[in-house]
Design goal:
The structure holds two protein chains of two kinds. Chain A is an alpha/beta fold. Chain A is 39% helix and 23% strand. In chain A, helix 3 packs parallel to helix 4. By secondary structure, chain B is α+β, with helices and mostly antiparallel strands. Chain B has a 16-stranded antiparallel barrel with strand order 1-2-3-4-5-6-7-8-9-10-11-12-13-16-17-18. In chain B, strands 14-15 form a two-stranded antiparallel sheet. Chain B is globular and about 110 Å long. Chain B starts with a helix and ends with a strand. Classes of the chains: A alpha/beta, B alpha+beta.
């Protein structure tokens, strides 16, 4: 029996060659909202550290967090907090709760076409529009035209954020067209004069950003409003790791949180956490 | 299925339409005959644009329909896992009979879950050489206005008691649950209704069940009494735990009973899990659970009416990098609840205390294949000259999940 046991364990350990991440390469996966920011960080970091390669891919926060649970990425980018079910999977697979690092701030922004006279909406009005209860722009102060809804895929952290913070947890209207990435939403709204979409503040190019109306006041997703919390749809953008960062991953994260890294945040169009 | 067919049909017709929109190169003979015929009137640019716009609009409409169909399909999740094993046991039982060296399929789970904002349907079956059995059949209502944090589940479902019983066998480190769990919560499931909820870091799971469990051999409950089972827990991410309780009756006859009698079936339990990120090699988890109670399940699904017992288990798991883990588990079960152990015919009594040490090495091949090698050393309490039987067990398990 001892021989059987020993040979079985030896065989298993021989097969158990760690599939460790390739030395000198950091993989970062997840939030499409964060891709433009993290790519810029990666470029700047690789200029200073030519021996290290930072690979950045999108796919949505859910995809990134799933990759973290499966062991196929070093860092997950997420524009929402990790859900309890995701945390349970991480605990079951890696005996760890993971490490959450806020790296930037964002104000989730609703975009309309440049020609749309509407400049601000309340959160309740946005809820009515995305639940499908309000279907015509004239009901919210715009022209008499049917509202064309653009949304993100359900693997997106922004999709979840809007669902939880605007729709009160209810589901999007069935006629909302889901598009892969914020850039696609912005592009669609830029072309569709009756369109409305949402995404990170850094993407609002060629479309009009809606202000959020609270009582008699209106708040744009500016640095001051996001930092002070006056803009009601502010959120953190996160890096998630399985364990405390070390080695090259730690060096990269330290860079993103350094004054130089946080200056990149502002350049890209998001807001620094420090 | 109907949705899938509709979606495929729509995509197929979209592709066909896109192909038909591509310019076609005429065959040589056709080209010659065209030259011979009088020149046909070319469509104007405006006509072409109008035609193309019509085609794009048609494609957009079909795309919207396909999206709508696919979004319904996204609500359906099919998952499962297969656990194939090789096992070697020195002896078949505590008396030293037999022993085995065998291949087996321990679990072949197939689970379908359909989730909407308000409801969830979940059906899970287990297909193994022993046959196909229903494991779970749950109908869940997410209580409106609670963002799916509170729900009510009815059907055949897991008992909301403790930590290891509700844990998925696909996630668990050791191939089988500890001895105390197998005694107090055999099959882990029953028919009933339960409320699940969380508020901040607090967790509540409580339900009313038939009580006999799905391993009792009876499809329907055999009495009018119901068992109340629940757990109050907390989850602070790095540390979680809870206390559980069970109050009910089990109807049956002891040797001296003339008629069937309702005997108390009770359990109390406490569990704790700690997750630490202190070593650079990977996460460390320390888990444990204690259960004491009356009327537990014995061998061959026999119920030990009115008998008291207790037990506990402790588990230490250390992850090694991305793909490996090692673990050690100590589990102890005392079916006599502190009463003296016995010996008969030179072997320990069947209900003597058993302490088991288990050692595990685990490796992941990619995302969905896990191989575990486990060596378990059961130590039955010795009395007089009755020796601990040689019944160590080696299990090599390959688990693939999807």
């Amino acid at each position: 029996m001892k021989k059987t046991l020993l040979s079985s364990l030896t065989a298993l350990l021989a097969l158990a060659t760690p599939l460790a991440a390739q030395a000198g390469t950091i993989t970062v996966k997840g939030s499409d909202t964060m891709v433009i920011l993290v790519q810029r960080w990666a470029e700047e970091f690789m200029k200073k550290n030519p021996g290290t390669k930072v690979q950045v891919t999108g796919g949505g926060s859910g995809t990134g967090l799933s990759a973290l649970q499966n062991g196929t990425t070093d860092i997950a980018m997420s524009s929402r907090e990790m859900k309890e079910a995701e945390q349970e999977k991480l605990r079951a697979r890696f005996s760890t709760t993971g490490v959450e690092i806020p790296v930037a701030k964002d104000g989730v922004t609703f975009y309309v076409n440049d020609t749309n006279p509407v400049t601000s909406l309340t959160v309740d009005q946005l809820k009515g529009i995305y639940l499908g209860d309000t279907t015509n722009w004239k009901d919210v102060g715009g022209p008499a035209a049917t509202i064309v809804l653009y949304s993100r895929e359900n693997s997106s952290g922004t999709y979840s954020f809007v669902k939880d913070n605007v729709l009160g947890g209810d589901d999007y209207a069935s006629n909302a067209q889901t598009l892969p990435g914020t850039a696609a939403v912005v592009n669609a709204v830029a072309k569709e004069k009756n369109g409305i979409g949402y995404g990170g503040a850094a993407y609002a190019k060629g479309v009009k950003e809606l202000k959020i109306k609270k009582g008699s006041e209106e708040f744009a997703p500016t640095a001051d409003n996001v930092k002070s919390g006056k803009y009601p749809l502010s959120r953190n953008l996160f890096f998630y790791l399985r364990n405390k960062p070390s080695g090259e991953a730690k060096a990269f994260i330290d860079f993103t949180l350094s004054p130089e890294g946080q200056a990149v945040v502002t350049k890209v169009g998001y807001f620094p956490v420090k | 299925m109907r949705n899938l067919l509709v979606a495929l049909f729509t995509l197929t017709t979209s592709a066909a339409l896109a192909q038909s929109a591509e310019p076609q190169t005429p065959a040589p003979s056709e080209a010659q005959s065209t030259e011979a015929a009088p020149a046909a009137a070319e469509p104007t640019i405006e006509e072409r644009i109008a035609m193309d716009e019509g085609k794009v609009a048609a494609l957009e409409e079909q795309n919207t329909t396909a999206q709508s169909d696919l979004s319904a399909l996204k609500k359906l999740k099919i998952s499962g896992y297969i656990q194939s094993r090789y096992q070697y046991q020195e002896s078949l039982d505590d008396y030293g009979n037999g022993g085995f060296s065998r291949f087996t399929v321990r679990r072949g789970r197939l689970k379908a879950t359909y989730t909407t904002d308000l409801a969830q349907a979940m059906l899970q079956i287990d297909a193994s050489p022993a046959g196909v059995v229903l494991k779970d059949a749950e109908a869940t209502l997410f209580i409106p206005g609670t963002k799916q944090t509170w729900s009510l589940t009815a059907g055949q479902t897991k008992w909301p008691f403790g930590y290891e019983a509700p844990q998925s066998s696909g996630d668990r480190e050791f191939p089988e649950r500890s001895r105390v769990i197998r005694a107090f919560l055999p099959s882990e499931r029953d028919r009933g209704v339960k409320l699940n909820g969380r508020y901040d870091f607090l967790r509540l799971n409580i339900g009313v069940f038939d009580g006999n469990g799905t391993d009792s051999g009876t499809v329907q409950d055999n009495d009018k009494d119901k068992d109340v089972i629940g757990r109050v827990g907390f989850d602070l991410k790095w540390i979680s735990g809870g206390v559980s309780g069970w109050y009910g009756d089990s109807l049956g006859k002891l040797a001296n009973d003339e008629f069937r009698t309702a005997y108390k079936r009770t359990r109390i339990g406490a569990d704790l899990q700690v997750y630490l990120d202190v070593l650079p090699i990977g996460g460390t988890a320390l888990k444990g659970e204690f259960i004491a109670g009356k009327t537990f399940g014995g061998a061959n699904n026999a119920t030990n009416l009115n008998a008291a017992a207790h037990g506990y288990w402790l588990l230490l798991v250390q992850n090694l990098g991305l793909s490996d883990a090692v673990a050690v588990r100590f589990d102890s079960f005392d079916p006599r609840n502190g009463a003296a152990n016995v010996a008969a015919n030179g072997v320990p009594g069947a209900n003597n205390t058993v302490n088991t040490v288990g050692l595990l090495v685990q490796h992941y091949f990619g995302e969905n294949l896990k191989v575990s090698a486990v060596y378990e050393i059961p130590m039955t309490a010795k009395v007089d000259d009755a020796k601990d039987p040689k019944d160590n067990l080696f299990t090599l398990q390959m688990q693939a999940r999807f």
